[in-house]
Amino acid sequence: MNWNSYIKSFQNYLKIERGLSKNTIDNYTFDLERLLLFLSQNQIEVSPITIKDETIQQFIYTISKELNARSQARILSGLKSFFNYLIFEDYRTDNPMELIEAPRIGRKLPDTLSLEEIDALISAIDLSKPEGERNRAMLETLYGCGLRVSELVTLKISDLFFDEDFIKITGKGNKQRFVPIANSTKKYIDIYRSTIRNHLQISKNHEDTLFLNRRGKQLTRAMIFTIIKNLAVAINLQKNISPHTLRHSFATHLLENGADLRSIQIMLGHESITTTEIYVHLDKMHLSQIINAFHPRKM
Q1: pTM confidence score
Q2: Catalytic residue among 168, 221, 244, 286, which?
Q3: Domain range enclosing 63
Q4: Would you say 229 and 236 are in contact if contact means Cβ atoms under 8 Å apart?
């Protein structure tokens, strides 16, 4: 078997055995393709079974000149998973990544938006354009329900349980959860469906997809990024934001207003509470700002 055969087998394992999403599998594949490119450029002829840690070290040294510590760590994690899979399938008896340490990375606090900034972002949407009502409904859903962008673009009409005030979300690893939805968000989705979506020529296999492009197909993640970036430019927002910023803002605002961490964890679909705990750090920053602004003995 060559590299491509092992990688294909690994992809099937990630999809069938571990139930990972296409985006996650694509990321693992991209990590391996980076390694293959390095081997090709340096004319190193090794297979997944014979490659040694010395070669991996050379690869790491090369990518360290191009990527930051966080990107390096992600690639190393992907490679370690691949070689662990080869051990699991009895192709190898050792993992060449075993003694290789990932670069130290600090815990990055996510950017957030204030409620005023979110209102300004949504108000900048041009509702006179056909996609305006769709974009407003999408941003209201992203922020109002704390969704990942991949969860937004795959949201189905059959996932909407408006009478019960919930929507069903399929998250990472195809794990499902129910998230509360506010009346205002439901209103904007209903407006989009009645004024825009119901008049589209919907492509085959997209009949149940909620948010569609002009061709009646599912929107791409990249398109959501572009929409939000353009709105940020329109209001001269001096922050580097993405769809995930609205998700972070959702969690942060809940915490600031008294929601408990466990409830936020469930709504965000975090497998571990430690992932959600990053918002405690954000909340502490908010409290420090309050002290510095309003306490009579502020420094």
Answers
A1: 0.62
A2: 244
A3: 3-88
A4: no
